[in-house]
Amino acid sequence: MPVIAPMPAAHSTPIPSQRESAEESAAEGTTVDHLTETYRAHYRSLLGLAALLLDDTASCEDVVQEAFIRVHSARRRVRDPEKTLAYLRQTVVNLSRSALRRRILGLKLLSKPMPDMASAEEGAYDQLERDALIKAMKGLQRRQREVLVLRYFADMTEAQVAATLGISLGSVKAYGSRGIAALRVAMEATA
């Protein structure tokens, strides 16, 4: 019967103990099987957590599925397999917060409704009134026209108009009042 000699200690590979293999698997992260089993076992509770944070079922399901995908892709960082559920829960909470922020931002960025547009008829009347006003303004004396344009179209105060034209404040008031009276007469004549 042949005798088998033991291998020298320098070349032998020790058989890993159960403790060492557990440490190695923890160093490698959570396994896909463990993550999948945790997800299946706690899917409803994760969905309930998302439902408390969000308002519609479709978004809740999307958030829980996205959480699984994200934890799956980062499973090597989950050193302790017992913490897999905690990672899934935290990811569901973070994704729910992000979904709510996107909704709020979307509501803020929605364009405000356009005011009711004038009909073509109203636009034509407005154009006629502008044309009549411009024609009436051209019929005013030069100083009256200058005072009214600066005061009402350039939105200047009476003092600013006086300084701009180099006339007294009283003259600005007089030219303005006479100009408005002349415009009123001219506009009533076209109506």
From TrEMBL:
Gene3D superfamilies: 1.10.1740.10, Winged helix-like DNA-binding domain superfamily/Winged helix DNA-binding domain. Keywords: DNA-binding, Sigma factor, Transcription, Transcription regulation. The keyword DNA-binding applies. CDD domains: Sigma70_r4. Residues 1-30 are annotated as: Disordered. InterPro entries: RNA_pol_sigma-70-like, RNA_pol_sigma-70_dom, RNA_pol_sigma-E_actinobac, RNA_pol_sigma70_r2, RNA_pol_sigma70_r4_t2, RNA_pol_sigma_r2, RNA_pol_sigma_r3/r4-like, WH-like_DNA-bd_sf. Residues 131-183 form the RNA polymerase sigma factor 70 region 4 type domain. Coiled coil: none annotated. GO terms for biological process: DNA-templated transcription initiation. Residues 39-103 form the RNA polymerase sigma-70 region domain. The keyword Phosphoprotein does not apply. It holds the Pfam family Sigma70_r2. GO terms for molecular function: DNA binding; sigma factor activity. Belongs to the sigma-70 factor family. ECF subfamily. This is RNA polymerase sigma-70 factor, sigma-E family. The lineage of its organism: Bacteria, Bacillati, Actinomycetota, Actinomycetes, Kitasatosporales.
